[in-house]
Amino acid sequence: MAEVINMPHLSDTMTEGVVSKWHKKVGDTVKSGEILADIETDKATMEFESYYDGVLLHVAVEEGKAAPVDALLAVIGKKGEDISGLLKASEAKEAVEAKEVKQEKEVKEERPVVEAKPERKEVVMAAPAAVATAPVRTAAPSMPSNGRLKASPLARRLAEERGIDISRVRGTGDDGRVVKQDIENFTGGALAAPQVEAFTEVPVSQMRKTIAKRLAESKFSAPHFYLTIAVDMTNAMAAREAINKAVAPDKISFNDLVIKACAMALRQHPKVNSSWLGDPTSADVAAGARIRFNQHVHIGVAVAVEEGLLVPVVRFADGKTLRTIGAEVREYAKRAKAKKLQPQDWEGNTFTISNLGMFGIDEFTAIINPPDACILAVGAINEVPVVKNGAVVPGHVMKLTLSCDHRVVDGATGAAFLQTLQGMLENPVLMLGAASI
Question: In the annotation, is 224 catalytic?
Fold first, then answer.
């Protein structure tokens, strides 16, 4: 009997998948465990194995095309088997499901709309400059009968600044008047052809679709507020240098230090290591809502890839050494860029760190990564003057900005967490013992 294969649900946020490549074609023999296709999800491109033995009788989604989760993907059965009835049943099922989704959408959209009176505005559009249509000539333009060349004051000034003989420029204004555009388009001969606007449009990738959806939901459902603190990294820099000399070649980065410090600070401030759980589509924000205080510390680390952003998770980060954290982050970054991350690599975060310091960004605010209640934005370390013991001395300052979900974390709670984090980074001995390195 023929077996239906549906689009698999390969990640917690996946709603549809794109078939990047079919490893089998219609008529090929397929064995259970063989790679059937590569499926692009919102996070990565993953290999999809067949669960059945038989012959590939039908392919419902072509390479490069998308289909919703659970939609018909392929059919495997015996050679020559009639699957027309099975295909009709699948089409009917998908039609019913599409109708239900449409009805649900219509119900959500049936809300009273207050009609706003549009503000009347008068807009004056400037007419585009005329483009010369005369045949191309190499000779100088003819002079008016009175021997005086017509040109706007701006055109004359531009011509003088650029060293252009204005008598050699063909005017496109009224009665052959030379205007600014003529000077800008002049190439030493005939009037240059007008420049052409150009652009390229590409389809939105599955990853970018999910980034847009999740971050829009976060930004507009979670009431964000932001707290920024400056950290003197002088001692942290000295500690990192000493550690790297002692444990070479397993170098640690400043990002590793921040991850470790955050993990330990979260232990002291469990309200920051929490989540708001509720229905983001409900009109009543508190309907069925609850707050989850996580007793484990799983830190998501934002990694930039070509198509967007992935957030692999360093699990139980508070109990790991700096070298272990550094090795995990480097491996995650390598696999993320190769699209080799698996769902278990990016699920379960309780707190997220986004670091743009290596790009020279002094400070920024980040959008909370659901289901976390907070995300930390890390800026660059800058050499600036600081005051110590009443004297101005050179210092190395890094700014940290904590984005908080006000439904879970209050200002004082977030500030207390940042103070603890600041203390650990400014005095690494508070978080680093021999077992922590």
Answer: no
- CA-nearest of 207, 209, 215, 204 to 365 is 215
Q: With a cut of 60, say whether residue 327 has pLDDT above it.
A: yes
Report whether CATH 3.20.10.10 matches the domain 141-197.
no
| Helix/strand/coil (H/E/C) assignment for every residue in 370-430 | CCECEEEEEEEEEEEEEEECCEEEEEEEEEEEEEEECCCCCHHHHHHHHHHHHHHHHCHHH
Does pLDDT of 124 surpass 50?
A: no
Residue 92, SS3?
Answer: helix
Per-residue confidence (pLDDT) for residue 111, from 0 to 100: 54
Least Cα distance to 172 among 127, 208, 116 occurs for 127
Within 13 A of 12's CA, how many CA atoms are on the CB side?
10
Nearest C-alpha neighbor of 207 from the set 314, 337, 344 = 337
CATH architecture of 3-94: Beta Barrel (2.40)
Q: Inform me whether the pLDDT recorded for 28 exceeds 60.
A: yes
Query: What three-state secondary structure class fits 125?
Result: coil
Per-domain residue ranges for the chain? 3-94, 141-197, 206-436
Q: Are strands 374-388 and 351-355 parallel, antiparallel or unpaired?
A: parallel
pTM of the predicted structure, to 2 decimals:
0.64
CATH node for 206-436: 3.30.559.10
Q: Could you report the per-residue pLDDT of 51-81, keeping only the tens digit for each? A: 889 999 999 999 988 888 888 999 999 888 8
> Residues of the chain with pLDDT > 70: what percent?
83
Compute the distance between CA of residue 26 and CA of residue 62 in angstroms, rounded to an integer.
12
DSSP result, 313-351: EETTGGGS-HHHHHHHHHHHHHHHHTT---HHHHS--SE
Q: Strand 299-301 to strand 351-355: parallel, antiparallel, or no bridges (unpaired)? A: parallel
- Establish whether the linkage from the previous residue to 135 is cis, with ω within 30° of 0: no
Please tell me if the domain spanning 3-94 has the same topology as the one spanning 141-197. Answer: no
Reply yes or no on whether the pLDDT at 395 is more than 70. yes
Contacts of 85 (CB under 8 A, 6+ apart): none
140 within 8 A of 169, measured Cβ to Cβ: no
pLDDT at position 147 = 55
- Could you tell me which residue, 105 or 322, shows the higher pLDDT? 322
